[in-house]
Amino acid sequence: MWLRDCWYVIAWDHEVPAASDPAIFTRTVLSEPIVVYRKEDGGLVAMEDRCCHRHAPLSKGRKEGDCIRCGYHGLKFDPQGACVEAPGIPIIPAKARVKTYPVVIKNKWVFVWMGEQEKADHSLLPANGWCDDPEWRYLPGYMRYEVPWLLIADNLLDFSHLSYVHEKTLGGSPRIALAVPDITPLEGPGPEGLRIVRKVPDVPPSSLHKKVRTFDGNVDRWFNYDFVLPGTLLMYSGGRPSEDVDGDMRRAVQLTSCQTLTPETDTSTHYFFQNAHQSTDGDDSVTQAIYQALVDAFHEDVDMISAQFRTIQLDPARPMLPLAIDAGVVRFRRLLERKLAAERAGPARQAA
Amino acid sequence: MWLRDCWYVIAWDHEVPAASDPAIFTRTVLSEPIVVYRKEDGGLVAMEDRCCHRHAPLSKGRKEGDCIRCGYHGLKFDPQGACVEAPGIPIIPAKARVKTYPVVIKNKWVFVWMGEQEKADHSLLPANGWCDDPEWRYLPGYMRYEVPWLLIADNLLDFSHLSYVHEKTLGGSPRIALAVPDITPLEGPGPEGLRIVRKVPDVPPSSLHKKVRTFDGNVDRWFNYDFVLPGTLLMYSGGRPSEDVDGDMRRAVQLTSCQTLTPETDTSTHYFFQNAHQSTDGDDSVTQAIYQALVDAFHEDVDMISAQFRTIQLDPARPMLPLAIDAGVVRFRRLLERKLAAERAGPARQAA
Amino acid sequence: MWLRDCWYVIAWDHEVPAASDPAIFTRTVLSEPIVVYRKEDGGLVAMEDRCCHRHAPLSKGRKEGDCIRCGYHGLKFDPQGACVEAPGIPIIPAKARVKTYPVVIKNKWVFVWMGEQEKADHSLLPANGWCDDPEWRYLPGYMRYEVPWLLIADNLLDFSHLSYVHEKTLGGSPRIALAVPDITPLEGPGPEGLRIVRKVPDVPPSSLHKKVRTFDGNVDRWFNYDFVLPGTLLMYSGGRPSEDVDGDMRRAVQLTSCQTLTPETDTSTHYFFQNAHQSTDGDDSVTQAIYQALVDAFHEDVDMISAQFRTIQLDPARPMLPLAIDAGVVRFRRLLERKLAAERAGPARQAA
User: Which chain C residue has the Cα nearest residue A198?
Assistant: First the structure.
């Protein structure tokens, strides 16, 4: 089950072609194929990629001004999803409509609202300001996983895996796993979620830190992040020479990261991510090096989580064993269950 | 559900090897694998490609005269499907039989009857005479689709798609979609179906026409076809300079086409087709050019219908929206439903 | 359904790396992924390849002495499957255990017991002594089939297929299929099964025989084998010039073979095999030639049985037709059903 009354990232801003470009962007979210295109005034349209007539994908058709025409039998839809032309049909039935989605760009991420249109609530957009802040530099990343999104969320909710999955990349020390994070609920405004703060003193700098600065000795590391519904991680992390006095950030490496999960189908997931360094800390080559180090580390996650999923599929009913380190995982899943139950109950029942 | 009491094309005549050729032809129809081979007298045998013993495919065995021997344990079957030799078995049980199918060649198409043998009715064979008429020249075509057969039948029952799917090939004008076809039932003799007549005045000649003749201006086009059970299209089409007086066919391009759909499985389909020009209209190079133009256009259909099927599979229960242009589609599906219901009821119940 | 209270071969001895080798061997048996590794004292450990925590495969982790550490969150398990370290967790719950399996090496085969541990019974190991006897030489073989294991067992239980599937390799004469084998039950001690003796007089020598010796004329061949639960063939076979007097083995080729089937999943199977010649009969080149001839012949089986399985899948409910030649097949399946029923009933019910 997926939460519907929330915003999912469907694309990076730059992935959606210009209005003048004939290419049509399409991506599947919660098993619904969706085209996203730009109107001539720059506004965005998100529309189901399925003609209402015989379910041909509209992305096989063409844009005509602000409209889109199906490439099978030529039905033409306006940005509100209404059929405005149907070749060979004198009177177009009112039911000839394609579903549209509330769509918004915020800080380079293109979000679609998958619930009822009238509930679309901008206050539920995540605070992904680091994606669009000149103080921070990054390269935008995208990967597609062939696993259910919750297995990746689990991964992001417990950074103890950095000591093992990323032993030679992001991790570098078993002490990350030994540090007990502080977890508190985020109850809004904004999307609900968890705030997770993990401090790891006196460990080697990570591969990302070393792209920015040379360290002679160990550093104190921190990973302070919010993980908010439906599946977005917003992190401030970094490292500072352990020998420096508290509060002295002159030799610190400070990083920010925005990462978000969007279910494609029951068994596949879109993953949008960036990891930014301070603009004052180096040039394009640093930005590129951090991006590449992150992608390399994420391939370690793909390898582990894909193997985990294959094992799970051999015996899907087998229960997992929750441990103390799963506090974040368990609390997030509980929050998700509560929100799912509320959606199932619906507003009428809630009022009753 | 498939109609069973009818003839399905399993092969072009030339696909079935000669009696002297050790190769064994096999193809799956309605999820039943079937071998077709020639006897020494030239007669055809169609037999399930499944040994009755342990279900090994007979096509992995060998022909021995008019018989076929299984390559697993050596059981040998005569053209009636009776086991006539079973190595190591003194008395062959009467149940040791493989199912055979009524099989007939008519105008280069090899048909199998998939219903009860005693019902096999030659009057239900389609009138595919253009496949074997010296007045017409063509190259035989075959494609395999990874989609349910009905999606391809829908495509053939509504030529409005020529304006869009085949915009740059067979179509060339939105006016094909604007023309309202005249549709009348075909109630026999012969297989039931629909007669669909679509006249399209004053449009550019199609890519096929231009393989045959040079046109200076627009043409009047026509597509007159019967679409008969279980899934055969028999078409007379062409184009004539719009400026020529009615009835003057001297500068017309006249084409005929026979196309037929045979379900392989629930999700795959055999497609046999040809498109012929008049023998007096050009040589081998024209025949080849028309064949290639048709194949190119059919790949446009494959691309669209495969994409449609992928979209449908994301939400198979979603209803389509019938429009006025679907008159042929809707009427053919209704005819099919009626015949399927009659088969399910059976002769006993019909009599009762 | 699979028999669980028995030993399945999971590997050849040489496939399991040395204790000092960081590589971890993993293979799936009865849909359970299992790692096998050597302790520093040389003893073997077989453990489910699934961390109890979040089901990551342990084979993605690393060996640490006699323990294995999960590569996801760092849980460490001892050879008994108990979690002895869990980073970040002060008190390890008693439930933090991974399933282990009784494991034993006997004559180069590594066996795991898939039933309840306390029932593990060494008397049920097969008599595969030919795998580890200096009088016999062979190369060890392994293949993976994409078919259910019973279809391969059926193949091994009826050598009449040698005349057809292996006509040009192991067979060479229809007389193998004509010979009626003598079949008697094996009721223990040792695993239950069937003893199948097939004598084939006056036929050409097989491809294997000819790797060992040159024959001028026909030979008398024999195939004497036990096929025991869960799926192991132990065979003494060979050929002797037909003209030689009874009992004169001076010009005989004598071969032994051990072959065993281990279900991987419902639709895939591990196949371990060897075919040995007498050490006094030739050198490495003979051993290699026999191995290659066997592998070539087994690819004929793969081709036939895979085709058979594809045909079965088109109509899985269709019953097969048992014939007299299936005596071995039918009796073995009956034995298997009886043992499966006994397992289902369980010891308590049996006592009641």
Answer: C88
